[in-house]
Specification:
about 280 residues, five-stranded mixed β-barrel, globular, alpha+beta
Length: about 280
């Protein structure tokens, strides 16, 4: 828990990218063009066959969560993060963040993620795992069920599978922190292998020096805390020597208390290397 709480520090950062690929056409010999098309079709067929290769299920340790008492069946995926059950309830896949998720114009990662969710879950029986705290973390303000999801037949942990394929980033919350360490480990492996979104440099882990390149969107920043300060019970972690211009994050009093209950005094993080993630 202590290691997890170090990782859960929130910051305000954004990632953005600019792509400008020139397009042009040249006259080609019809025979050469036919050969090129044949080669392209063959390459596409090989890629399709590669995509059809089964992906090994990801196991999760749900021992700190409470399993849903009865079996439930998935109707379909509404979007990359929500599934509808045959009983009409909507389940939100907790702990995930999709960088290009847009209700009106979803990106390639969102589309691939939703396709995978549908392939894994449509018509399948699942087990829902929820926090043991009855007054928080089980539903959101929209009435959606918040849960970690596991396939009943194959034991495939859906959130873990999506993170492992690089189709989502880990985004645990203070209300649903239970699977954080497992999600971070899968994310680190996918990032090292440059799977999915991690093949795109705009989603790379930022440093305090280039954190300005990420403003107003979810991102991850790693660096050494140069100093800490306390003002009005709020703690500031300064990643540079000039807090007015350098990267700094603040920890609110209620969050500071949560760290303290986990055995971590955030004021002592000076000269420590930490990773923060958030908006």
């Amino acid at each position: 828990m202590r290691e997890y709480m170090k990782k859960l520090l929130l910051c305000t950062v954004i990632l953005f990218g600019l792509f400008n690929t020139p397009l042009y056409a040249e006259e080609e010999n019809p025979q050469e063009n036919t050969e090129t098309e044949t080669e392209t079709e063959q390459a596409q067929t090989e890629q399709a066959e590669e995509k059809q290769e089964p992906i090994a299920p990801i196991s999760g340790d749900f021992s700190t969560l409470r399993a849903n008492a009865s079996s439930v069946t998935v109707d379909r995926a509404i979007d990359p993060l929500r599934i509808r059950l045959t009983d009409g309830r909507i389940v939100q896949l907790t702990g995930l963040e999709i960088p290009d998720l847009d209700a009106y114009d979803p990106g390639a990662i969102s589309a691939a993620e939703q396709m995978m969710v549908n392939e894994l879950l449509t018509g399948k029986d699942i087990t829902l795992y929820q926090t043991r705290t009855p007054d928080k973390g089980q539903t959101n303000r929209m009435g959606y069920v918040l849960a970690q999801v596991e396939g009943k037949d194959d034991g495939n942990w859906i959130q873990g599978a999506l993170i492992a394929q690089g189709l989502a980033r880990a985004m645990p919350t203070s209300d649903n922190p239970d699977m954080a360490d497992q999600m971070f480990a899968l994310e680190a492996k996918a990032r090292a292998e440059k799977k999915g979104l991690w093949a795109d440099e705009q989603y790379a882990v930022l440093t305090p020096d280039n954190a300005i390149d990420g403003l107003n969107k979810y991102a991850i920043v790693e660096g050494t805390v140069r100093g800490t300060a306390v003002m009005g019970n709020k703690v500031f972690l300064n990643f540079g020597y000039n807090w007015r211009t350098d990267f700094t994050i603040s920890i609110e009093p209620d969050v500071r208390k949560k760290f303290a209950r986990a055995g971590l005094n955030v004021v002592d993080l000076g000269r420590k290397t930490v990773r923060v993630r958030g908006w």
